[in-house]
Amino acid sequence: MVNGQCSMFNDMKNVYFLSDAHLGSLAIPHARMQERRLVRFLDSIKEKAAAIYLLGDMFDFWYEYKNVVPKGFTRFLGKLSELTDLGVEVHFFTGNHDIWAYEYLEKECGVILHKKPITTEIYGHEFFLAHGDGLGDPDASFKLLRAIFHNKVCQWLFSALHPRWGISFGLQWAKHSYIKHKERNDVVYLGEDKEHLVRYAREYIEEHPDIDYFLFGHRHIELDIKLERHTRLMILGDWISQFTYAVYDGEHMFLEEYVEGESQP
């Protein structure tokens, strides 16, 4: 576990959290419209935001070779660059689909890259932030696959593939994964006793009772529950069909849906 540095923002602007856009997915028929909608949302909050936390799987597959990155996403990457140029902190968490982010997003877009969960202070409250994959999930096959994806030797071997084949393979794998989970109806709330992230958070606060907010992506469900009197847990939904996000103004936390044409908090 990695402890993040305290985040101190001026003028009490809002802090936003979102995840799971899966940009570039071959399984999403409205991919270009989806990216544009995300960019319009980011544009709508750029004057109100002190920081934006992107909690993983913003890309359906992202692999950085030494001199090559996946094509596309120009609107999204351009907006990230604009936000950081304006002084907005943009925190990019790798998920289980975009593990292989290295230097490009930091150097070219100015984001702050996180490869592990962090705890950080925002406006005097303690936040635990993570994509959520691998936290409390007992699935042995998923653990094995995750270990392979994170293995440095396996990453080096994959880098030996020509990008034409490597990126194509990654996109097809991601498409197959998305369709499989959709067919199994995995994006259904299982209840507090069966949701791995809820169980993980409950165990975590036994040794870290100072946490005020847990925020996760990964599950593609909207969830906002109290774990303890002062501790809330949110799962952020997605930016495929739900277009949901959390916003924190320093005093109140809200889980919202982005609706075109409506003014945003």
The ordered string of helix (H) and strand (E) elements is EEHEHEHEEEHHHHEEEEE
Helix percentage: 25-40%
Q: Strand order, biggest sheet? A: 1-6-7-8-10-9
> Distance between termini?
32 Å
Number of helical segments with 4 or more residues: 7
How large is the share of residues in beta strands? 15-25%
Shape: globular
Largest sheet properties: 6 strands, mixed
Radius of gyration: 18 Å
Mean pLDDT: 88
What structural class do the secondary elements suggest? alpha/beta
Q: How many beta strands in the DSSP annotation?
A: 12
Task: Please mark out the parts with pLDDT under 50 across 5 or more consecutive residues, or reply none.
Answer: 1-7
